[in-house]
């Protein structure tokens, strides 16, 4: 029993030692795993950054290619325009030869001056047109006001004419009545004279 207990004790001690070693190994493995995870995360972040940088550079490259293509198109258009307008340069050179101008820029300057003067004249004409329209509107308003006043005066004249006609009619009526009164007065006077004469005869 003692021998067996010694063996069990030795096994138990070995088991504890192995357990301690296992704990140490687990801790070291955990640290290693943490370090590996940390390194893996750093590597992943680095890969993500590199991928983002690559995508950004590719996007910038695409934008640069687009700008380059646009500039090429613009350059081609400008070349075509220069080629198209080259005849005008030749025309301006011929104009300089047969005119009082000595340089092409003088012709262009003169043309710009004339265009500016033409624009100023158009603006002045437009202003005069607007002022004329405003004056016409004011004149129309004045004419309408005066026509309204004339119509009002005509209405008043009609009313006065009606009153004058009524007064004329009243005068005729009053003259008739006055004639009647005068006739009646003359008749009464004649009767009064007859009565007086009769009284005088009776008195005599």
TrEMBL record:
<feature type="coiled-coil region">
    <location>
        <begin position="34"/>
        <end position="81"/>
    </location>
</feature>
<keyword id="KW-0175">Coiled coil</keyword>
<dbReference type="GO" id="GO:0005856">
    <property type="term" value="C:cytoskeleton"/>
</dbReference>
<dbReference type="InterPro" id="IPR051147">
    <property type="entry name" value="CFAP_domain-containing"/>
</dbReference>
<dbReference type="GO" id="GO:0007286">
    <property type="term" value="P:spermatid development"/>
</dbReference>
<feature type="coiled-coil region">
    <location>
        <begin position="121"/>
        <end position="170"/>
    </location>
</feature>
<feature type="domain" description="DUF4200">
    <location>
        <begin position="1"/>
        <end position="97"/>
    </location>
</feature>
<dbReference type="Pfam" id="PF13863">
    <property type="entry name" value="DUF4200"/>
</dbReference>
<protein>
    <submittedName>
        <fullName>CCD42 protein</fullName>
    </submittedName>
</protein>
<dbReference type="InterPro" id="IPR025252">
    <property type="entry name" value="DUF4200"/>
</dbReference>
């Amino acid at each position: 029993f003692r021998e067996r207990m010694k063996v069990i004790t030795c096994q138990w001690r070995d088991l504890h030692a192995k357990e301690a070693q296992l704990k140490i190994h687990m801790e070291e493995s955990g640290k290693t795993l943490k370090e590996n995870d940390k390194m893996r995360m750093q590597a992943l972040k680095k890969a993500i950054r590199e991928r983002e940088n690559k995508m950004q550079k590719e996007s910038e490259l695409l934008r640069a290619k687009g700008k380059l293509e646009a500039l090429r198109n613009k350059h081609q258009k400008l070349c075509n325009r220069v080629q198209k307008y080259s005849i005008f340069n030749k025309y301006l050179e011929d104009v300089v030869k047969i005119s009082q101008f000595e340089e092409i820029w003088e012709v262009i300057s003169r043309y710009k001056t004339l265009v500016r003067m033409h624009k100023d004249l158009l603006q002045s004409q437009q202003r005069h047109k607007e002022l004329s329209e405003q004056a016409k509107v004011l004149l129309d308003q004045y004419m309408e006001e005066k026509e309204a006043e004339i119509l009002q005066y005509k209405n008043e004249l009609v009313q006065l004419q009606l009153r004058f006609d009524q007064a004329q009619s009243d005068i005729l009526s009053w003259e008739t009545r006055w004639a009647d009164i005068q006739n009646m007065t003359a008749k009464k006077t004649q009767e009064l004279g007859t009565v007086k004469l009769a009284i005088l005869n009776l008195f005599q």
